[in-house]
Specification:
The complex is a heterodimer of chains A (327) and B (500). With 327 residues, chain A is an alpha/beta fold. Chain A is built from 12 helices and 11 strands. With 500 residues, chain B is mainly alpha-helical. In chain B, strand 1 (184-185) and strand 2 form a beta hairpin. In chain B, helix 4 (58-83) packs across helix 6 and helix 9 (207-225) runs antiparallel to helix 18. Classes of the chains: A alpha/beta (327), B mainly alpha (500).
């Protein structure tokens, strides 16, 4: 603890000394050299695809290359750490998610950075839709029947996640809390194997957005969307509230752009507007929709308070279910 | 049947267009090159090229990316044969007999065998994908955690087959491999194990890091410590092609390897890699002269090379038939589709028939191109061996470092490779076999993960492994292998006892 706070203090001093020099004037002329967008996950995933769409849009608007760099590992904390320790000059940015900003800080004490102080929220880019899906063999035609079934048979069902402490995992626990059910968590390594076992019926339930296409072919039954609004792509699927489980309170999954802590206000504003404009491009909107998501354009402040609210929500559930990475 | 012929005709029509042929060739060529370069693998390459595919048609993009993946399986064997450096993790097995063949001046033969076996496997599995994807997917779906565990157990028991000489050392290597595999966050709890607070170790150590260090780097150190006379024999080369006897020996091995690789490749999560190990184990088992294995048996090259190419291609099946990416390469393919606004789904064949069948047909063209690219290159590669070693090894080391660094942009992993190189030297001096170690390293984590997952699903009842027929069958096979392993010794001991 001592050590980490001292390191943090050193980091702050370093950051402060860097801030003195070239700031103020930079927002006007920014960017004067290529900008790095760090994706803290492996290439090929949703975050990676988004970062590349964003990079393309920003590049067109700002006339400098925006280079996407994948720095996967340790649930996103390796890549996030690089940005946390980078100078807040706007030349190192992070494509973060609910996982890296709201969940990870609540389940591990070993993060090499402070999730609040070391980052500046810039733009909320995308809200991804999640759904509660069950194997077609489960005898429940709608959410209410499934909740009743799960309550009646505690310990009988399992739900899949793409790993401990992932969004799927938390969403499953939010469900257990809301429904008063005891569905057992089964962790997988990534979303491919988890969806595979849901389709095969080795597990009965999963909450996520990874199986929408599979569900449309009838291999998974979607009972409700866990986002506050219905997804335009599946207008007949009710929200949790509409389907009778208003107690379910998991915040939706998002992807957004952040920078190192202490970025100058003008720079944040400039990037926020540019990112929002890039994401509003009709072609980008279409592509985002194909991945069961919608584009969200908000102010940087709204994004910051959203992160705060989510940290609390996930923190509460982590405490309640004793979910954490260290013994 | 006529429907499939029609669909394939459509596919060949799409794949034979000039632009698609070009991207197929480009993918195959890039794949070969990165396969040859140690460390840098298809995943890193596809990741780097992903943004470029943004500007291509989706079919072109997928054809090129697919070409990179199976092209790398061809190229990966090259350095495995020439310098005992597995270009890809799937060519670890080829290091064993391929390199032994090269040391006997048969590098050209080994490379030709690898290329021909890969081509055969690629052609067969392309057809298999076209005809049997749905049925095979259904079979793969029957594999739950219990079945996986039993399959892995069988694999681990079979690992002893890789042992040359003392089975005790093989068992020791297996345990070392298992221990190394434990490093990283535990999938079931998320707790760190043996990570020494290094966040880089949370995801475990990469197979490429381990195999490159143990095989390639260690071999360089051993060569350098051996003095100049040890290197003389590597340049002696006779012929580049296979003799009639070679063909006769390689043919059945290729056939078996194709079957084994295709089946294991369908299983999501690392199945493709296991194919080459399984094929090697089978070849050694069925051979009348198992002692030749490790000394340059051509079956030990043909089988595993066919298997890894078959596996690489059949791992497309769950992705194409179900829309579920089974491994990280397939996840990358899914990512490429998403960039173009196409979501991978079970309905891909009906919603995007041009793309679906075009991609499948392109695999056959790709394999043909790979054969055409690779056969003439053999002469060139073998000439490379004639270069003085003192010029060769710094270049190899440099490529290794670049390759490893590009995988995760991590200098830490370059250091790890060096560490495993040292371990490789120590193990070589102790005459410990490396293949069982690598196999256990790959299998161990999967086996543990599935054991615990199966036990969680059964709420702690171990009967789950015996009550499910496939799992039971695999466990019985396991028991048989153990019995077979013990029997000769047992018999010999008994004979010795009765004679005395």
């Amino acid at each position: 603890m001592m050590k980490s706070s001292r390191r943090r203090a050193l980091g702050l001093i370093a950051a402060a000394s860097l801030m003195v020099l070239p700031q103020v004037a930079t927002a006007q002329s920014y960017p004067t050299k290529p900008v790095k967008i760090i994706v803290p996950f492996a290439a090929g995933g949703r975050a990676d695809a988004l970062a590349r769409m964003l990079a393309q849009g920003l590049q067109e608007q700002m006339g400098q290359p925006f280079v996407v760099e994948n720095r996967g590992g340790a649930s996103g904390s390796l890549g996030s750490d690089l940005v946390a320790k980078a100078p807040p000059d706007g030349y190192t940015l992070l494509l973060a998610s609910t996982g890296t900003q709201a969940i990870l800080p609540k389940i591990t004490a070993k993060l090499p950075y402070d999730a609040d102080r070391d980052f500046t929220p810039i733009a909320l880019m995308v809200e991804s839709y999640s759904f509660i899906g069950v194997h077609p063999g489960v005898k429940a035609a709608n959410l209410k029947e499934f909740v009743d079934l799960a309550r009646a048979k505690p310990g009988e069902f399992n739900y899949a996640s793409s790993g401990v402490g992932t969004y799927n995992h938390f969403a499953g626990e939010f469900f257990n809390i809301a429904a008063g059910s005891k569905i057992t968590h089964i962790a997988y390594r990534g979303s491919g194997p988890s969806v595979n076992d849901l389709v095969a019926g080795h597990v009965q339930m999963m909450i996520g957005g990874e199986f929408v296409e599979v569900a449309q072919a009838g291999k998974v039954r979607i009972l409700a969307t866990t986002n506050p609004q219905r997804w335009p792509g599946l207008p007949d699927i009710p929200t949790m509230k509409e389907a009778g489980l208003a107690e379910f309170s998991a915040p939706p999954l998002w992807f957004g752009l952040l920078g190192p802590g202490g970025m100058p206000r003008e720079l944040v504003e400039k990037l926020n507007q540019a990112a929002n404009k890039a994401m509003s491009d009709p072609k980008t909107v279409e592509r985002v929709k194909a991945a069961a998501s919608i584009v969200r354009t908000e102010s940087a402040d709204a994004f910051a308070s959203l992160i705060k609210a989510e940290q609390k929500a996930f923190g509460d559930v982590a405490k309640q279910t004793n979910m954490k990475f260290e013994e | 049947m006529s429907e499939i012929v029609q669909s394939l005709a459509l596919g060949f029509g799409v794949a034979a267009s000039l632009s698609n042929l070009w991207y197929c060739f480009l993918g195959a060529l890039i794949g070969t090159l990165i396969g040859v370069l140690p460390g840098i693998g298809p995943i890193a390459t596809m990741a780097m090229l992903l943004p470029l595919t943004y500007y291509l048609q989706p079919t072109e993009a997928l054809i090129m990316l697919a070409g990179i993946y199976y092209g790398a399986q061809y190229g990966g064997s090259t350095t495995a044969v020439l310098m005992r450096l597995p270009g890809e993790s799937s060519s670890v097995v080829t290091c064993l007999d391929g390199y032994a063949m090269a040391r006997k001046g048969r590098a050209g033969t080994a490379l030709a065998t690898a290329a021909l076996a890969s081509f055969f496997a690629g052609t067969v599995v392309t057809l298999l994908i076209a005809i049997a994807s749905p049925a095979l997917t259904e079979l793969a779906q029957k594999f739950g955690p219990a079945e996986y565990f039993s399959l892995m157990a069988l694999g681990l028991v079979a690992a002893v087959v890789f042992a040359q000489g003392s089975p005790l050392r093989a068992v020791g290597a297996i345990f070392l491999g298992l221990l190394l595999g434990l490093i990283g966050a535990d999938v079931n709890t998320g707790f760190d194990r043996f990570t020494f607070d290094r966040p880089e170790l949370r995801d475990g150590i990469g197979v490429v890091v381990v195999s490159m260090g143990l095989f390639g780097i260690a071999e360089i150190m051993l060569n350098l410590s051996g003095g100049p006379e040890g290197q003389g024999e590597r340049t002696r080369l006779s012929r580049l092609w296979l003799t009639k006897d070679d063909f006769r020996a390689a043919w059945p091995a290729t056939l078996r390897g194709t079957g084994i690789g295709a089946l294991l490749g369908i299983l999501p999560g690392g199945g493709a890699m296991l194919g080459s190990f399984a094929s090697y184990a089978v070849e050694k088992r069925v051979s009348d002269t198992p002692e030749r294995f490790g000394e340059g048996a051509i079956e030990g090259v043909a089988g595993p090379e066919a298997a890894n190419n078959a596996g690489a291609q059949s791992s497309f099946i769950p992705m194409l038939a179900l829309g579920i990416p089974g491994n990280s390469v397939m996840a990358m393919m899914a990512g490429a589709m998403l960039i173009h606004g196409i979501a991978p789904s079970p309905n891909l064949a009906s919603t995007q028939p041009q793309l679906f069948w075009g991609l499948i047909a392109s695999m056959w063209f790709g394999n043909l191109m790979l054969l055409v690219i690779n056969l003439p290159l053999i002469g060139l590669w073998v000439k490379l061996l004639a270069a003085p070693y003192r010029m060769l090894f710094p270049a190899i080391l440099l490529f290794c470092c670049i390759g490893i660094y590009t995988v995760n942009n991590s200098a830490f992993e370059v250091g790890l490779v060096a560490l495993f190189g040292l371990l490789g030297v120590v193990l070589a001096k102790l005459e410990c076999p490396l293949a069982p170690l690598v196999l256990a390293f790959i299998l161990g984590p999967m086996m543990e993960e599935n054991l615990r997952r199966a036990m969680l699903l059964s709420r702690g009842d171990p009967a789950i492994f015996l009550s499910r027929p496939i799992s039971l069958g695999l466990l019985i096979a396991c028991a048989l292998v153990i019995a077979l392993l013990l029997m000769p010794n047992f018999r010999r001991a008994r004979e010795a006892a009765t004679e005395a």
